[in-house]
């Protein structure tokens, strides 16, 4: 295992290598910038998963503020990107993957929420909290809609894990 950790290798790449070696699996990678051309990104994802049985979809993608600020200080670019990545991104990737799961009558979708939306009021990450509030309700509704179709949907609500997401540190 230690042999896989090359100097300068990103943790994610190390993890990918570990999975390939230990589980004997193949990994397909699609690079999508969720702040960019989302239609093109979703098209690439649809193309990549064609013919694959996607059993589990984990919608981990998410951004927050580079640093905490009050709502009147949030500029248009940040506001748009938060909604685009956190709300539109998760919704559209789910929409791309769901038909295959429905056809096979099985699948699991895991969305990532946040304690600032579901447990305590955010201070001051309001737009981020709002987008995660969407993820929470989106997940509940999907769960109800698809539970009889063999698809399980859940929202994992995370507390503060690192300063990277919250403050870009
Ligand atoms: N950390 C916390 O305290 C906390 C608390 C509550 C909820 N969450 C949620 O947990 C999830 C994971 O966050 P994390 O803490 O693990 O932070 P992270 O390491 O920054 O993960 C965010 C993920 O989103 C991807 N991403 C960000 N911007 C993107 C873009 N424009 N296009 C494509 N991918 C993009 C990142 O990809 P790259 O690695 O390639 O940049 C990364 O895989 C997020 O949904 C976050 O909102 C985190």
From TrEMBL:
Record bears the keyword Hydrolase: no
Key words of the record: Oxidoreductase
GO cellular component: endoplasmic reticulum
The keyword Oxidoreductase is annotated on this UniProt entry: yes
Domain of life: Eukaryota
Gene3D superfamilies hit by this protein: NAD(P)-binding Rossmann-like Domain
Molecular-function GO term, any one: ketoreductase activity
Protein family (similarity comment): Belongs to the short-chain dehydrogenases/reductases (SDR) family.
Record protein name field: Uncharacterized protein
Species assigned in the record: Liquidambar formosana
């Amino acid at each position: 295992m230690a042999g896989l950790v090359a100097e300068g290798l990103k943790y994610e790449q190390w993890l990918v290598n570990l999975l390939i070696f230990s589980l004997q699996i193949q990994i397909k990678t699609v690079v999508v910038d969720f702040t960019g051309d989302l239609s093109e990104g979703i098209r690439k994802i649809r193309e990549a998963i064609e013919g694959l049985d996607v059993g589990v979809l984990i919608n981990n993608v998410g951004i927050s503020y580079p640093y905490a600020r009050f709502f009147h200080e949030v500029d248009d670019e940040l506001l748009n990107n938060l909604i685009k990545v956190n709300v539109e991104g998760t919704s559209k990737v789910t929409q791309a993957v769901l038909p295959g799961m429905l056809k096979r009558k099985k699948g699991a979708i895991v969305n990532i929420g946040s304690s600032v939306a579901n447990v305590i009021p955010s201070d001051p990450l309001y737009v981020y909290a709002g987008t995660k509030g969407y993820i929470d309700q989106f997940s509940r509704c999907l769960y109800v809609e698809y539970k009889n179709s063999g698809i399980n949907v859940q929202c994992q609500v995370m507390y503060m894990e690192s300063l990277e997401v919250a403050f870009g540190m």
